[in-house]
Amino acid sequence: MPKRTDLQSILIIGAGPIVIGQACEFDYSGTQACKALKEEGYRVILVNSNPATIMTDPEFADVTYIEPLTVPMLEKIIEAEKPSALLPTLGGQTALNLSMELHKAGILQKHGVEMIGAKPEAITKGEDRETFKQAMLKIGLDVARSATVKSMEEARAAAEKLGTFPLIIRPSFTLGGQGGGIAYNKEEFERIVANGIDISPVHEVLVEECLLGWKEYEIEVMRDRKDQCVVICSIENFDPMGVHTGDSITVAPAMTLTDKEYQVMRDASFAVIREIGVETGGSNIQFAVDPVTGRMVVIEMNPRVSRSSALASKATGFPIAKIAAKLAVGYTLDELKNDITRVTPASFEPTIDYVVTKIPRFTFEKFPDADSALTSAMKSVGEAMAIGRTFKESFQKCLRSLETGARGFGGGGGKWGGDELPDDQIIKQKLGTPNAERVYYIRYAFLAGYTVEQIFNITKIDRWFLTQLQEIIQMEQDLKKQTLADIDAFTLRRAKQFGFSDAQLAHILKSDLATVRAHRKKIGVNTTYRLVDTCAAEFEAFTPYYYSSYGDENEILPPKGKRKIMILGGGPNRIGQGIEFDYCCVHASFALREAGFETVMVNSNPETVSTDYDTSDRLYFEPLTLEDVLEIYQQEGCEGAIVQFGGQTPLNLATALKANGVNIIGTSPESIEAAEDRKLFSAILNKTGLKSPAHRTALTEADALAAANEIGFPVLLRPSFVLGGRGMFIVYTEEEFKNVVRQAFDVMPDKPVLIDKFLEDAIELDVDCISDGDTTVIGGMLEHIEFAGVHSGDASMVMPPHTLGKAMLQTVREATKALARELNVIGLMNVQFAIKDNQLYVLEVNPRASRTVPFVAKAIGIPLAKLAAKVMTGAKLKDLGFTREQTPKHWCVKEAVFPFVRFPGATITLSPEMRSTGEVMGLDEDLGIAFAKAQAAAKPGLPTSGNVFLSVKDSDKTRAVELARQLETLGFAIYSTSGTAQHLADNGVKVNRLAKIDEGRPTAVDMIKNGQIQLIINTPGGMIPRKDENKIRSAAYAHSVCIMTTITGAQAAVNGIKALLNKKVGVRPIQKYVGNVQLV
Asked: Exposed/middle/buried for 492, CB within 10 Å: 0-12, 13-18, 19+?
């Protein structure tokens, strides 16, 4: 069927901020959908609150709204734009839930908007656990025995009926298994159920028989309106049931199914997608198989493009989201061509002749008090993917892609790669409970003499996988008996085919990286590159999408005669290095193509737009290590490489790459080093006459304490060379300092720690600028709402600055330009300033793309990263038409989004260590409304009536009185505990007293749980909130109550509430803001 001509415009809802369970896979799928629908001539209307995404760039949709993803906001947009249809399946769970709310509220019907891709009935059938279960039984498929319950009484009855513990609890309509878990006894059961009913938006949980230890599979299926179904990819979980699939190591294609078992599962997938009624598009269906009896159970399906869809797309080269968008507007699979072969239709099932491994990336070190065991609730913040000819090769490549310090699975030094074995008790414990390090303890277990059978009995990881890993260990043991001089080409090639990196081999063969590499090439063991072609080499592939291996055939396509530039991506997402850096890499690729270069992208992250096969001219899905990057650079004959756009990952390689003859374009590695190195940077500050807070460097704990006393408390303690404020502390006393100094040293062993005077109550300012060596132009200045001491990634920010005067901003401009000149910046630079008592201090300088670049670019309507890429290849700003700073006439507020609800027990506080996973943007002509929009987008939004709980540290009490009076005037009732309550009462504020926790009832927590508190203002009196404060904060997060933990944040919230009560909230696409600037 040809495309529908009755539709003119299509509304796409994005996934909002990056959170655990919903990361930048949905930026990738949304970007693909926008491109696909625009190609077909439809007017595309996009709504998303996340400024860091590629999809919210003005050129991707015809109309782009960066607005909160709430029903009232969407209704305003639908009223303004009058779309013909809504495509709900490309923005993750957020878009799906929101589309259903719009449907139930009658808004779609009222405005004549048709839901395409998946109808409301199909979404309900796929998402509602009880309806789904009945549908599966109707078509003769088995499901886990379960009961849907809405109260503790019903839950107890269900547990009784299901019989034996353990039981799995899954709250309905939550993301990534949030609030769920596995209960091994009645006490745990009651705790998890109570929490689950609480957290579920419909207050319902599914109590299910536990299939712990069963094998888990996923099938990615597509269907069109002719009822043609195809399997895009089968995926097998390395970890058995019990670990959320987002936290599990996964392998494609499925490795341990017989052909017959696979066919049964394939047929079942088609039956599921037909019964649920997903008319067109992609679905992800999960199965579990009992390894003993072979019983197959359907676990769940996502009637939308899912997290795994990005992985399946990258693993096969089949663009699921793009095809899903085209099917939604009427095409059928046989009418669409496969982009890679250009001859086969999309109805050909992809075939792959290689193995793909995905391993999740965790950041438990940011949440030391949280439980790091992996369960049915997702906790990972990113993932790496690797492709190899065999499971062994792809598995080892994937482990080194994670950038956690491991060089692979089979020894070879690095983290967890040594020969010293942990205590047997620790090995058993690490194998018995799924955790992020379990895979390395499998190696320790084999080295300690465990058999495959013993490890299987403890872990229930399939024996086939364990045998493969055992063979890697066997190879490691054999290699240890040899030296580099006497190893033959056959053995060395076999080791490379097993996935051993040169760094591992150097350690095992007692040599060094350069020598191993040279020897390997001398004896003819060369890296070859193979194409990802969707058809196992049956047809020619036209898209240069590569992975490395050690076979005979090298499939690198001949050069096109253009100059080549390599762009290094950021690797797996983590807190501190996320989608913002991928955004910059994608922009670099687009800009260099425009400038006539051929672009070569290297990255290992399957979730991103940078690893889409049509973003760059050539894509290499490889680990970002010296060995891998150098090989590509040399084989491709690149003439330069960009390392400044992918965050800290490529920067860490810069010096070694340069030493090996790679031409690093833009700001030199020496300048980057100078900005990081204390002594060199101090000299630059002296030369420019700029001040920084008093600071010292220390290599031992004793030196560090002496330095802190010399400078005087409070001090900021931090390790050198880290991203995201890892191991950073603000310390007020000597006692506190002794408690945390060890942690700062542990982050980067053998590197010094830095001790700075902490500027309490200073205003912080982030400045992004661009320089071509002659001209420096400021892109944007962002003033932090919180006082100094909150990591810039976690701070709320306002652009343009809202409290600083013209004279100070002029001083900032001059300081920024002086720093860019001294550091010879060519490209982007970010400077963090602090202002205290009208004195300007430089906190740090990063001569690279920063995480605020996408935000600033959207605020001023200028693609800064694109301009920077062109400048790095020799263009001048005057030729690019950007020589004057442009300040927006409207207000842009950035707010961070935190994952605390995923880590019960973790300390909830804003500090110099970054803990946010994503961000949102609020745009408006009025600052109060812009702040309120940012809060609504970050969730929960600001209340406009109700009760406020107010409890502040002593130094905030004077300002708290003023806040309480303003809130009283706005009609709020104030609640407080002893100290703050007394102070407010003494100053004539009407206050309701509450008991402190452990000092009687009712407490603030009781009121939060009863839905009686609408806003919490709670500022901690030291580095870490007290236990009772943390209980209040945890309850606020669990119950979606708006909370402010700084007094400046609280004042901004009150201004936002005033604006909401007194002004009209409107919506406006970012295309209408373009040019709404004044030249400085």
From this structure: buried
Is the pLDDT at 174 greater than 80? The verdict is no
Write out pLDDT tens, residues 253-262: 999 999 999 9
Do the strands 355-361 and 382-388 form a parallel or antiparallel pair, or are they unpaired? Answer: antiparallel
Q: What is the pLDDT of residue 203?
A: 87
Exposed, middle or buried by CB within 10 Å (0-12, 13-18, 19+), for 403? buried
Which residues partner with 951 through β-bridges? 1018
Q: CA separation (Å) from 1041 to 75, 395, 1013?
A: 24, 43, 7
pLDDT bracket for residue 854 (50, 70, 90): very high
Residue appearing with tokens 């550091």: 823
CA distance 831 to 812: 10
Q: Do residues 127 and 96 lie in contact, with contact meaning Cβ atoms separated by under 8 Å?
A: yes
Q: Which of 576, 571, 903, 897 is nearest to 725 (CA)?
A: 576
**Average pLDDT of the chain?**
94
User: Rounded to whole angstroms, how far apart are CA atoms 216 and 218?
Assistant: 7
φ, ψ dihedrals at 210, nearest 5°: -90, 125
Confidence band (pLDDT; 50, 70, 90) for 1023?
A: low
Q: Where are the beta strands (DSSP E) in 55-204?
A: 63-65, 85-87, 114-115, 146-149, 167-171, 181-183
Tokens of 445: 């277990």
Contacts from 1058-1063 at CB under 8 Å and sequence distance 24+?
1058/928, 1058/966, 1058/970, 1059/926, 1059/927, 1059/928, 1059/929, 1059/931, 1059/932, 1060/928, 1060/929, 1060/932, 1060/942, 1060/944, 1061/944, 1061/970, 1063/926, 1063/928, 1063/929
Give per-residue pLDDT as tens, 413-428: 899 999 899 999 999 9
- Give the integer Cα–Cα distance in Å for 273 and 30: 22
Which region, left, alpha or beta, applies to residue 449 given φ > 0 means left and ψ of -120 to 50 means alpha?
left
Paired tokens of 201: 């938006």
Query: Considering only 118-132, 220-234, 549-563, 1019-1033, which range has the smallest mean pLDDT?
Result: 1019-1033
Specify the amino acid at residue 429: Q
3-class secondary-structure state, position 450:
coil
As beta bridge partners, residue 546 has 531, 620
Q: Is 959 exposed, middle or buried (0-12, 13-18, 19+ CB in 10 A)?
A: middle
Model confidence pLDDT, tens digit, residues 1061-1071:
999 999 999 99
Contact 513, 484 (CB under 8 A): no
Pairing mode, if any, of strands 826-836 and 947-951? unpaired
Taking alpha carbons only, the member of 483, 611, 617 closest to residue 559 is 617
- Could you tell me if 754 and 711 are in contact, meaning their C-beta atoms sit under 8 angstroms apart? no
Least trusted range by pLDDT, from 187-201, 584-598, 617-631: 187-201
Are 996 and 977 in contact by the 8 Å Cβ rule? The answer is: yes
pLDDT at 127: 83
Rg (CA), the chain: 28
- The pLDDT of residue 1025 is 63
In sequence order, the 6+-apart residues with CB closer than 8 A to the CB of 955 are: none
Q: Can you tell me the mean pLDDT for 965-993? A: 95
If pLDDT is split at 50, 70 and 90, which confidence band does 318 have? very high
CB 931 within 8 A of CB 1052: yes
Rounded CA-CA distance 168/471 in Å is 35
**Cβ(717)–Cβ(704) under 8 Å?**
yes
The reported pLDDT for the residue numbered 164 is: 86
